[in-house]
Write a structure and sequence with these properties.
By secondary structure, the chain is mainly α. The protein is built from 17 helices and no strands.
Length: about 425
């Protein structure tokens, strides 16, 4: 596995377990309608936030991984942080521009919850900037600690609210704000920039505003498309279902279970892009191919295993983890798991395309998947089932397109001698 995967994976394991615990506590403390509203905030938080700010993490991480001059690295970091402030302002402006439909249709008039949603999204700016620094400097131990601290704090906050009989969704939303900011402060303290000893990649060491804007802009478009495809389901169900219907909450519990493998993939992804950038900078084509072959096999086996478990006992698992009112049907669970597997495969291939400096291709493919998802949602059928099937269709098309592009770009790469240290130097 890529270097740093275990450290990040442990942190993500804690974050994953605590995510289920947080939602489980919330589902028992809130009524079905309030939990559905909190589920919308949860979905928006992990769609709009990462969609806007994850490109900062990726761009900072892949640049710091191949820059030898600490002063130039500092310039890149300062300007990337400036871009982050611009993105934060844009996210806030867009949210207030749509305050009417968001508050009235999605949040059922809950203005306090809307405020918590805004602040939770803004907190993701320092979160992803800090993670880009930690990944680019190879400090994956701190990266994992930040993830674990975030999850642990949110569970502690939810448990405290439940203990004092708080029944407002907005209060649980504010827990998500505080946990992120405290985790960043605890792990970013005194992190020096690296002194890379290899040959600099000129395409990634340019610290100018225009270079950063191009890189982050295309990565932003791609990440937004990926996040919309992955997380649009609960929003679509909540929008199309009757008001105060608990369908969105039940769909969210199904999606959470089906996306268990994405926690492991997130651990791989954190170190995969910087590592692939180093391999491609060294023109080690064989190591790139070997890394991707192993990665795709691992993700396929993992996704297949989770799908099988959900096919056998998925509804029963959702009832145990949450409540009987949030029990999910078997078919949507299996479809969402299949879609998550295709999504992971596509996202893994997208990382190597980003390392090859092809962010425009990545953005185009992800939005193609969104278009396919939107078209499939319009087909007839029961709402949760057709939204789940639409996710499978969009993810499958995206994964196929990424695979075709990877094969095309790989053929154009010059053949390099097989490294005698592939096992040690692969990302």
């Amino acid at each position: 596995m890529p270097s740093g995967t275990i450290a990040v994976g442990v942190g993500l394991a804690v974050l994953g377990v605590t995510s289920y615990a947080f939602l489980g506590i919330a589902s028992r403390a809130l009524d079905a309608s309030s939990f559905a509203r909190l589920g919308i905030v949860w979905t928006v938080l992990f769609t709009l936030g990462p969609g806007a700010f994850l490109p900062l993490e990726q761009e900072i991480g892949r640049r710091l991984a191949v820059i030898s001059d600490p002063e130039r690295a500092a310039v890149v970091l300062r300007r990337a942080a400036g871009v982050g402030l611009i993105l934060a302002a844009a996210v806030t402006a867009a949210s207030f521009a749509a305050i009417g439909p968001i508050r009235n249709r999605l949040l059922n008039g809950d203005l306090a919850l809307f405020g918590a949603m805004i602040m939770a999204n803004l907190a993701l700016a320092p979160v992803h900037i800090s993670r880009g620094v930690l990944a680019g400097t190879g400090r994956f131990g701190r990266y994992g600690v930040q993830l674990a601290a975030d999850g642990t704090l949110r569970v502690a906050g939810a448990a405290a609210l439940s203990a004092i009989a708080v029944h407002r969704a907005a209060d649980f939303g504010w827990v998500l704000v505080g946990s992120q900011l405290i985790a960043v402060a605890a792990t970013l303290w005194r992190v020096p920039l690296p002194i890379h000893t290899g040959h600099d990649d000129e395409a990634l060491t340019d610290p100018t505003w225009s270079a950063l804007a191009r890189g982050i802009g295309w990565m932003l478009a791609g990440t937004m498309g990926a996040q919309v495809l992955a997380n649009a389901g609960p929003v679509v169900v909540k929008t199309l279902a009757p008001p105060h219907d608990a369908a969105a909450g039940s769909f969210l519990t199904a999606l959470i279970l089906a996306r268990i493998p994405l926690f492991l993939f997130a651990a791989l992804q954190a170190s995969l892009l910087p590592g692939l950038a180093k391999l491609l900078n060294a023109h080690d084509k064989h190591a790139v191919v070997l890394t991707m072959r192993r990665m795709l096999l691992l993700l396929t086996l993992l996704g297949g295993a989770v799908t099988l478990v959900l096919l056998v006992a998925g509804p029963e698992i959702t009832q145990v983890l949450f409540t009987s009112s949030h029990r999910s049907a078997r078919l949507p669970l299996v479809l969402l798991s299949l879609g998550s597997t295709c999504y992971m495969i596509g996202a893994a291939i997208a990382q190597v395309l980003l390392a090859m400096h092809r962010p425009a291709h990545v953005a185009t493919v992800w939005w193609l998947g969104v278009i396919v998802f939107a078209a499939a949602v319009l087909l007839p059928g029961e709402l949760p089932t057709r939204v789940s099937a639409a996710f499978v269709a969009g993810s499958l098309v995206a994964a196929g397109a990424f695979a075709a592009l990877f094969a095309q770009f790989l053929r154009a790469m010059p053949n390099a001698p097989l490294s005698s240290e592939v096992g040690r130097t692969a990302p």
